[in-house]
Amino acid sequence: MVPDVAIAAESPPLSQTTAEMLRRAMELALHAPSVHNTQPWRWRLCDHAVELHADWNRHLICTDPDRRDLVISCGAALHHLRVVLAGLGSGSSTDRIPDLENSAHLATLHVRPTPPDPHDAELFQAIPRRRTDRRRFSGVPVGAALMQALAVRAGDLGAALHPVTDERARARLDAALAEAAAHQHHTLGYTAELAIWTRRYAGARDGIPADSLPCLGAGPEGSWLSRFPRGRLACIPGEPCDDAGVLMVLATPGDTTLDRLRAGEAASAVLLEATRMNLATLPISQVLEVSHTRRRLRLDILRTPDHPQLIIRAGWAPPNAAELPATPRRRLEAVLMQSD
Ligand SMILES: Cc1cc2nc3c(=O)[nH]c(=O)nc-3n(C[C@H](O)[C@H](O)[C@H](O)COP(=O)(O)O)c2cc1C
Q1: Is 324 a member of any domain?
Q2: Which atom of ligand 1 is nearest to the CA of 76?
Q3: Residue 67: CB within 6 Å of ligand 1?
Q4: What was the pLDDT predicted at 220?
Q5: Helix (H, G, I), strand (E, B) or coil at 96
Q6: Who contacts 190 (Cβ-Cβ below 8 Å, separation ≥6)?
Q7: Closest atom of ligand 1 relative to the 132 alpha carbon
Q8: Whose CA is nearest to atom 4 of ligand 1?
Q9: Within a domain: residue 177?
Q10: Domain contains 325
Q11: Does 279 fall in a domain?
């Protein structure tokens, strides 16, 4: 592989069209999912490259003490950016954790004069379509071949996707989810953070609006939704309660910032691939935010040396389900850092 320095030395100055393409790419990548829709990222436009920085001011200190969700959210934005560039016809390469002196600088994406990765490019159309769906799913199960295709996407980014299909493991996972919810309910500052990010001021471009949260009876049976207050998302008329949604645990070989960043990239790839298949998806992080339920998930439920990072629930929305509204995003100007 050619070192970045050599390419930078030979590169012509950033042309108007490349700069415009990168601005458009950064803007579209803002569609990435993030914990409580905090959008905890910043971009810096450089010479033929975009830097991704964590925005520690948007850290949910009481909900996410390890900053796991924050870094995963940034990883999702990084993967979205790579997919958008590929969709716009540009190749790229990624330097992860490039500056050990600056822990906020999580990655740099370099534009390359190479053809785009076709696997990334095919996810491009799914970016504006993807939504977090917290409603009940239909009783149609997700087939093993589709779950395998999602696992391949995660594997491409160095993560494993473990579907929890065994009944006893699923019951233990439901219990761990309930325990994490109960634990956080008593965690100082947790409910305040929840209120801050679900009751934003009018016109806010972040947080979770009531239109994205199910009203009474519209969500699935179970504890994983108990973190959010009820919203205005309507029930699906006439839909029976047999929700066949599957829970899949995304895990990485280690638990460093780099592993979490990669987990975020893999989460984005799985969510976009699922959207491409017309599956509805919901990321679930509560059980990973509490150290003892995270440990239980790893050692008693998955029984794997891998480190669980995020749960992804997937299923088929009922045929008569209304289209979900998009959650808001901040303007590009609000997340752009000054270039040196
Ligand atoms: C790391 C991470 C953790 C998340 N955890 C949860 C969760 O526990 N429960 C939930 O309902 N949504 C969760 N989400 C989904 C976000 O709330 C959602 O991405 C955000 O509100 C933006 O909405 P959108 O995905 O529809 O664009 C999580 C997303 C990420 C990236």
Answers
A1: no
A2: 31
A3: no
A4: 77
A5: strand
A6: 62, 63, 184
A7: 26
A8: 35
A9: yes
A10: no
A11: yes
| Same-domain status, 104 and 23 | yes
Which one-letter DSSP state was computed for residue 305? S
Q: CA separation (Å) from 43 to 16, 93, 104, 154?
A: 18, 16, 11, 24
Report pLDDT digits (tens) over 251-284. Answer: 999 999 999 999 999 999 999 999 999 999 999 9
Residue at which a domain ends, from 97, 129, 161: 129
Instruction: Decide whether any atom of ligand 1 lies within 6 Å of the 286 Cβ.
Output: yes
Residues 32 and 93 in one domain: yes
Distance (angstroms) between ligand 1 centre and the Cα of 195 equals: 15
pLDDT band at 227 (very low <50, low <70, confident <90, very high): confident
Residues 35, 69 contacting (CB under 8 angstroms): yes
Residues 284 and 152 in one domain: yes
Cβ of residue 208 lying under 6 Å from some atom of ligand 1: yes
* C-alpha–C-alpha distance, residues 30 and 23, integer Å: 11
Please identify, by atom number, the ligand 1 atom nearest to the C-alpha of residue 133.
26
Q: Are residues 75 and 201 in the same domain?
A: no
Do 181 and 301 lie in one domain? The reply is: yes
Q: Who wins on pLDDT, 256 or 218? A: 256
